[in-house]
Amino acid sequence: MRLEEWYRWFEDWTEDATAARYDHAERVEELRAAVEKANNPGKEKAPQKAG
């Protein structure tokens, strides 16, 4: 594979990888809620203490 061919292949691959990484954009709120729930199992949001 010549350098120019490799460069085109690599450029296409990185664009595909980036698109796959950000393909979940429409689900951000759902994913955020799932992460918060996983980080705080069984805990509801407790009121903040004044302090």
What does this structure look like?
It is a single chain. With 51 residues, the chain is mainly α. Helices cover 61% and strands 0% of the residues. It contains two helices and no strands. It has helices at 3-21, 28-39. It is rod-shaped. The relative contact order is 0.07. The mean pLDDT is 74.
Which keywords apply here?
51 residues; mainly alpha; rod-shaped
What's the helix and strand layout?
Blueprint (H helix, E strand, L loop, with lengths): L2 H19 L6 H12 L12
Helix content: 55-70%
Calculate the terminal CA-CA distance, rounded to whole Å: 66 Å
The count of strands amounts to: 0
The residue ranges in which pLDDT falls below 50 over 5 or more consecutive positions are none
Content-based structural category: mainly alpha
CA gyration radius, whole angstroms: 21 Å
SSE succession: HH
**Biggest beta sheet summary:** none
Number of helices: 2
What is the strand content?
under 5%
The averaged pLDDT comes out at 74
What is the global morphology?
rod-shaped
